[in-house]
């Protein structure tokens, strides 16, 4: 199969997803005051079925929509398949207490996981709350066992959270 055709299809699907996944709330870091608040994000990268940790997987945290992404931070996984704790800007917790608020009380980040010999995973819309460490599991599939589908695999982590 033509790689350009696959890439074109992937880009078309991402554009369609971005057009249909617009919320009325703002899915970005909301700035409500001069004080900064942060939340944590830790990636746990393993093989499919969580059997083995994947060492030296490159984990990239970003915001924005493909292809206009803004890289926030990057790290490699350790021997246990875990990254460092990413400290990320978030809106203040008090946003969740405001009834007529149109801003989300959490920040939304995306993650790309790449490792030699594995299909790339992309996790979209990962919620990160102020003062909370979020754990993001990512199970990588070996390239040799993937057959014709060489990815990347895209996972949408979005859902409504009511604090």
Q: What characteristics describe this protein?
A:
single chain, 163 residues, mainly beta, Immunoglobulin-like, five-stranded mixed beta sheet, three-stranded mixed beta sheet, 1 helix
Overall geometric form: globular
Largest sheet, if any? 5 strands, mixed
Order of SSEs: HEEEEEEEE
CATH homologous superfamily designation:
Carboxypeptidase-like, regulatory domain
Instruction: Return the CATH topology.
Output: Immunoglobulin-like
Number of helices: 1
Strand order of the largest sheet: 3-2-5-6-8
Radius of gyration: 17 Å
Number of domains: 1
Average pLDDT confidence is 83
Class based on secondary structure composition and strand pairing: mainly beta
- The CATH class designation is Mainly Beta
The share of residues in helices is 10-25%
Q: Based on DSSP secondary structure assignment, what is the total number of beta strands?
A: 8
Beta-strand portion reads: 35-45%
Poorly predicted segments: 21-35
CATH architecture: Sandwich
Distance between the termini: 46 Å
Short account of what is shown:
With 163 residues, this protein is mainly beta. It has one helix spanning 3-20; strands at residues 37-47, 58-65, 68-76, 86-90, 107-114, 121-128, 133-140, 153-156. The longest helix is centred in the first third of the chain and has 18 residues, at 3-20.
